[in-house]
Design goal:
By secondary structure, the protein is mainly α. It contains 15 helices and no strands.
Length: 348
């Protein structure tokens, strides 16, 4: 539970360039600076509200707050707070922050690349929709009136104006998908953890990503704990009692119950069937060699590389897909214009 004063809770702290902040914080901790001192040195560089931030951090420290509470006050979310909380047990906070900074930087790069990819096709699709709206309001009525003057009522085929509505259909479909995703996410968050896990593992595309992501997280944190000299059961207990990732808490609890019954870690993970299918083989090799901690850390890096590769593949598909949609709209516009003219020529 975060112990913050009323004033510090209401104050929002915005940090500039969060990935650089985490990198610099990790570097200062590696050099031997204490966490409060390192934060005091960095806040004037990364925060416009230094006095409010310094006052809030002092309040948390005086009330006995930990590193995760300090980072939460600075606006970091559970993806950062989770490894920071675990680092309090294995004592490698600087290494954890360095790893978080790299992940943070990769995420920001993907988001920036996605924005750059989407700006042009989305703008072009919007412009095409407005242009087609102008055609429907001005061109179609005039053409329909022209055709009706040359054709009898029974022979009139009309203007296929629905072809000019294709951009509206595409934009409406995208809006429905986004709204459906938002509603599904809200309903999902309201469910119990085991229900969330079951639902996510049934989604065709998401389940591959989510297995990789969960496997990466639990391998990274469990590997760091074990490599630091903490026993396997104690490490699983730490993960099962942390407060910032419900799914990892659920997985760690189930694995620990299997370990207590005498099952090896590899068998427990395999029987659970939630994490990546190749993870039990890595675990079995680590158990045989006695380097389980190192094997898990290596495996987490492999999983992150796979996540990045899959993300890059999808990014390469998104922009061409939008251009195909725009091309279909342009072809439809030509058909909407040429077909009535073709029928009109044959009538004359």
């Amino acid at each position: 539970m975060v112990r913050l004063s009323v004033r510090s809770r209401s104050q929002k702290i915005h940090l500039r360039d969060r990935s650089r902040f985490l990198e610099r914080l990790a570097a200062l901790l590696t050099e031997g600076y204490l966490l409060p001192t390192a934060l005091t040195l960095l806040l004037p560089i990364h925060s416009r509200t230094f006095e409010a931030a310094d006052e809030g951090l002092s309040s948390i420290l005086k009330s006995g707050g930990n590193a995760a509470e300090l980072m939460k006050f600075l606006g970091f979310k559970d993806s950062v707070l989770f490894p920071v909380e675990i680092a309090e047990h294995h004592g490698r906070l600087s290494e954890s922050l360095e790893s978080i900074a790299k992940s943070f930087g990769r995420t920001e790069q993907v988001q920036t690349k996605l924005k750059n990819i989407m700006v042009y096709p989305v703008s072009l699709l919007g412009f095409t929709s407005l242009l087609f709206l102008f055609f429907r309001m001005n061109y179609v009525p005039n053409l329909a009136e022209l055709m009706s003057s040359f054709q009898s009522g029974g022979d009139s085929n009309g203007v296929p104006a629905y072809l000019l509505k294709l951009p509206d259909y595409f934009i409406g479909g995208i809006a429905v998908c986004l709204f459906g995703t938002f509603v599904f996410w809200k309903i999902l968050k309201a469910q119990k953890v085991h229900v969330q896990v079951n639902w996510l593992l049934r989604l065709p595309v998401v389940k591959k990503y989510i297995r990789l992501y969960w496997s990466h997280l639990i391998a990274r944190e469990l590997g760091t704990l074990v490599h630091s000299g903490i026993s396997l059961q104690e490490s699983l207990q730490v993960l099962a009692e942390q407060n910032h990732h419900k799914v990892i808490r659920f997985i760690a609890g189930r694995v620990k119950s299997e370990i207590i019954q005498g099952q090896p870690l590899s068998a427990a993970v395999e029987r659970m069937g939630i994490l990546s299918s190749d993870m039990p083989a890595f675990l079995k090799h680590g158990e045989l060699t006695g380097f389980l901690g190192k094997e898990l850390i290596l495996y987490s890096e492999v999983q992150m590389e796979q996540i990045e590769q899959q993300t890059q593949k999808w990014l390469k598909i998104i922009q061409p897909a939008f251009f195909v949609i725009i091309a279909a709209c342009i072809v439809a516009a030509y058909l909407a214009i040429l077909l009535p003219m073709y029928n009109l020529v044959h009538t004359i």
